[in-house]
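Protein in question reproduced for absentees:

***
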Amino acid sequence: MRRLSTLKQTVETWRALESGVNDAIELVALSGDDETLAGDLAAEVERLQGQVEDLEFQLSFSGPYDDRNAILAIHAGAGGTESQDWAEMLMRAFLRWAERKGLATEILDMSEGEEAGIKSVTIEITGPHAFGWLRSERGVHRLVRISPFDGSHARHTSFALVEVMPEAEAAGEVEVNPDDLRVDVYKASGHGGQNVQKNSTAIRITHMPTGIVVTCQNERSQGRNREAAMKVLESRLLEMELEKRAEEHARIKGDHVSAGWSNQIRSYVLHPYKLVKDHRTDAESTNPDAVLDGDLDPFMTAYLKSTIEAS
């Protein structure tokens, strides 16, 4: 039913555009030397041109998983408190971005830092083309700033890794043998590692054939935590399968880049000048405060448009 609804919306959009073009053609025949009608025609052509450009951009979301929900994971790099604070700043930026786009978010698991920030977080982002948008963010994000944690006010460079996975949906899309899983139950912990619940509700699932480990402790119910952890595990296994396909494709085409620590995609410089630059598209912003407040669309759009041109 969701697929049917999407197709109907697509057909209606194109038919409305066709109708608009026909109306504009009729307006051309009627306008003549009438300045008012000529002005109306110019406005209508501009509107139709904007629609066509929007539809061209929609080609960015033609991938088989682009219309799915996304699982977003952020991991602080080496550097202790500095990188953990940076990971939390990125988490806030993505949550604010999702809010602007009208996408729903749910934090499935979060490991807080000892002094500040977070060591890692896993977020489910739900809504139209969530994965299609967020796949542009896979990779290492670099921050340069004057450290708020350094008494000497030295300049520090911090790194965080962002992973984005499509949510597994169809039954049987990812096969998980229960015998391949080791499930550990423990008490949920809060800031500094102290236990915040008396009952053991947190879940850790280890997929023994691949070594993938997922945890979830944000729900008070052990069953809900297990369900969320399995969702993340299935998405990671799906992403692993997609990576294998991409690596196979790279042997022929040679353009695959994984979201590893060696692949820095964007730099956020707060000192000695203010600049955010994407190293893949050269998209820039001199307002990093706005970017870190969720204004990520220009960078995402530039990347997605570059994928259309490349294809």
